[in-house]
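I have been asked to look over a protein record a colleague put together. Alongside the sequence sits a line of tokens, each denoting a local backbone shape. Please read both lines and tell me whether the tokens look consistent with the sequence. I do not need a full report, just your reasoning and any doubts. I have pasted the whole thing underneath without changing anything.
>
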Amino acid sequence: MARAEDIASVLPSGGRRSDAPVRRLDAAARGRRRVALDRFATGLVSAGGFAIIASILAILVFIVAEVVPLLTAATVSVAKVAPLPSAAPVRALVGDEFATHVAALDLDGVVRVLRIADGAVVAEETLPTGAAPLVAAQVPPGSGLLSGATADGRVLLAPVRWEARFEGQQRVVAPTLAAPIAIELDTTKRPVPVYAAGVTPSGAVTAAGQLADGTLVVVRQTRRENEFTGEVSEAQERLRAAVPARLTHLVLDSQQRNLFGADERGNLLWWAVGSAIGDPQIVPAGPAVTALSLLLGGRSLVVGQADGAVSVWFAAAQAEGPPRLTRVRDFPPRPAPITEIAPSQRDKGFMAADAQGGLGLYYSTSHRVLWSGAAPFAGALALAPRGTAAYLAGRGELALLDVANPHPEVSLRSLFGRVWYEGYGEPAYVWQSSSGTDDFEPKFSLTPLLVGTLKGTVYSLLIAIPLAVFGAMYLSQFMHPRLKTVVKPAVEIMAALPSVVLGFLAGLWLAPRVQRLFPALILMTLLFPLLSIGAGAAWSRLPKRWRGRIPAGGEVALFVVVLAAGLWLSVALSPWLERVVFGGNFQAWLLSTTGLPYDQRNAIIVGLAMGFAVIPIIFSIAEEAFSNVPRELVSGSLALGANRWQTVTRIVLPTASPGIFSAIMVGFGRAVGETMIVLMATGNTPILDWNPFNGFRTLSANIAVEIPEAPMSGTLYRVLFLAALLLFLVTFVVNTAAELVRQRLRRRYAQL
């Protein structure tokens, strides 16, 4: 039995057991749980922050990884050298698109098709040259024809067709040598060593050459089949023209409407071939022309000269008069005369060989020398149809060259500089990624898109910044608290409106009405400030006993009525203003007076719509900045005798300026990245100017429009990723600069 004093020692006064140790244990356990929860929350928040940073960096790394291949340099290497069983020199080569076979024409008139894998001759045919050997041979640019000129004045064209089929899992290419086509150029049976020939897609055959007496002759041969009777009729047309000098080169375009030549005096000549041949356009080129060819599409002329110069010419539009053959690009000269030019059948690229065995790979639009090196030997040169291989025939051998040329269209000049495109009168900034023809010259200038992005952002911020900042200032400093609880959520709800809805309304509803009532918009910009100031002045001059009868914040109703009246008055006066000031038609007046056309979907529409989308963001952040100004600063200013307006403009506004600047920068980022509004409310045309009455295209809208049609890993695909990287960099630079300015403003006004 326990003693009473022992029991009393463990019981508090009153006879109850003490729970202090239990409370201490519970408090310690709660403390441990709190510490554990704090650590868990800290780790979770830190992990979330690091995950966000890692995600952004991963996106950046992915974008950079897609852009880096644009910087890959082209390479040309010898893949295989096979014997070429030809006694006479080979002068013309054509290959299949898979670079498995090549057809070679030598001056004996023999066409041999070699399988490159083992060098075996799989087909051979002798052209019907008769007793007259070939005096020249060539491949018409952009065609799969082998052509040769005989010593008796004829031109023979031998089409080579490649049939690809699969036998099991293996692709087999079978060559077919079609029956040759013969055209008689010189009826006196004398050789025509300088000639050009080609076949149009419709089947018309044309040959041109300079006869021994110096006359230029063009023979056009057509073949038509009656679809009802099957009867075939042939017609031949012969055109003649005088030539001032002996020609050294001739080349026909793919449509056989233009004939280009070079004479022994170093001049380039251009004839328009129609129902007759007129006088040529003669342009001095400098040293003697030693090689001449046309790029894909037949618009650009590649000229190689005796001093090693390589240049590109085309017919440039003139301010007055017809287009003129113009020297557009000069590439770095080679150390010896140019002997061969092989144009690509896929793009605006070409290869050139010189007399010292040098070889170069070029691209016209981007003005790039993609690769330069030594050829294994001298001889006839040709590029494979896909541009992934090249053939070189000479010394009884055939060399296959592997060509890796992933993105030749891209250079700093083509992306951000002025480029002189085919048919243009001068260099220009142009974005046009596709066309309806295969011989299109891609135009990848990002400058119009950068300007369009800034243009849309500037016009939207011109509207959003004054309304949002002054609205936030009024709401936080002047508006009655009861009214504030209604207005602030209403403005913030505006941010929830989908941008696609705003773009739809702006493009289909707002744009036609602004076009019809644009003078009313001009009146609004003048009347609204005047009416607001007048209404405020009238309200301040009302007797206090009258103003006291109106609930606090009720003065807003006066401004709403006044602005509604101003809106009605602007619309009502719009026809009168258009008739009196703008001659009855604002669009016609604008075009005749300033030369600026008025597009229905223009920068003003985007400014209104995107400004509406940006206002809630700037408003919310700016209002928080105004509200966070210490109340003791406001109270101290008022206590010293300053009125409310002086306090707001001289104390509150400077103190809140870092937050206001942040709000503007966040709005800037929102406007820069906007896609749907500018996509639907503008003409979406990449025009490079600041005219508010026409459309534009932004980087983000361009990505949205182009990416569904961009071939995977193609040049357009990677250029769009480059546009995304530019957007990333622009927002990063702007936000970094904004943070630096904000910190400086905070330090400057922290002592107020």
In short: The radius of gyration is 39 Å. The domain at 288-445 is CATH 2.130.10.10 (Methylamine Dehydrogenase; Chain H). Residues 1-5, 7-15 have pLDDT under 50 and may be disordered. The longest strand covers residues 154-167.
